[in-house]
Backbone:
């Protein structure tokens, strides 16, 4: 268990009959074929796939981290409003990630936020590389535990958005949903004002089901509302619906 694949191969080759031993490499029809856990999702949305790491063996360990990325360069930093994030997770090793503390020091678990950020800037040679692994992400945990549930109130949500706006960030990702709120609406008006930051705010449609009303912040007229589809392109059964939806992606 302590050996790398290359070390294990060297040990086998040192045996009397193992001189020709090698990995059970995979071979594909073209150099641009995808070989990681997000391949199906990337293919569905037409995300450009360049040469990725080669894999060998049942464990699918990467043999090389030399990846010639041809994907979106994401020149703008991305502000993420979510739960806590584990910056020490292996998938986020070396990522350009900044975590901004909230004023009261409260926070939440690091499961959801880590998963969301890994979709953006997950390490390229990991089993689930991010869409824009070289991008910069600035994140704020606006959630706290309330009666056994992680949730964000309007005060914390607006404070988190204000922290990101204070850094003049112009791209925001909010994987959360709740009711329409006048204070939140004013904050979103400020962020997306063409005469001000003119920010792009992306928010989740919500998981209340097809009969539920429009969730916020996705319901704001200048927010890009995103819903999820499965591997066959069918709308996620628990997703909220409506004419405000801007796009769908694998989720």
Residues:
């Amino acid at each position: 268990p302590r050996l790398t694949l290359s070390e294990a191969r060297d040990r086998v080759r040192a045996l009397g009959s193992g001189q020709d031993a090698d990995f059970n490499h995979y071979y594909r029809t073209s150099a641009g074929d995808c070989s990681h856990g997000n391949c199906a999702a990337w293919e569905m949305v037409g995300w450009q796939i360049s040469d990725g790491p080669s894999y060998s063996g049942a464990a699918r360990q990467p043999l090389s981290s030399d990846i010639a990325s041809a994907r979106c360069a994401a020149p703008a930093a991305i502000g993420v409003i979510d739960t806590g994030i584990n910056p020490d997770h292996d998938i986020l090793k070396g990522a350009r990630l900044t975590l901004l503390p909230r004023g009261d020091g409260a926070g939440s678990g690091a499961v959801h936020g880590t998963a969301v950020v890994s979709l953006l800037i997950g390490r390229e040679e990991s089993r689930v590389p991010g869409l824009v692994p070289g991008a910069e992400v600035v994140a704020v945990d606006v959630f706290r535990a309330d009666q056994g549930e992680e949730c964000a109130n309007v005060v914390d949500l607006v404070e988190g958005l204000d922290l990101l706006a204070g850094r003049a960030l112009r791209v925001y990702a909010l994987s959360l949903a709740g009711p329409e709120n006048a204070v939140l609406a004013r904050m979103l008006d400020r962020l997306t004002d063409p005469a001000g930051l003119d920010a792009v705010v992306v928010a989740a449609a919500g998981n209340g089901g097809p009969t539920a009303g429009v969730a916020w912040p996705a319901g704001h007229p200048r927010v890009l509302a995103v819903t999820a589809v499965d591997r066959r392109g069918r709308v996620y059964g628990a997703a909220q619906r409506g004419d405000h939806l801007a796009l769908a992606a694998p989720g």
Q: What stands out?
A: The chain has a mean pLDDT of 86. The first helix runs from residue 5 to 13. Helices lie at 5-13, 39-45, 111-121, 154-165, 182-192.
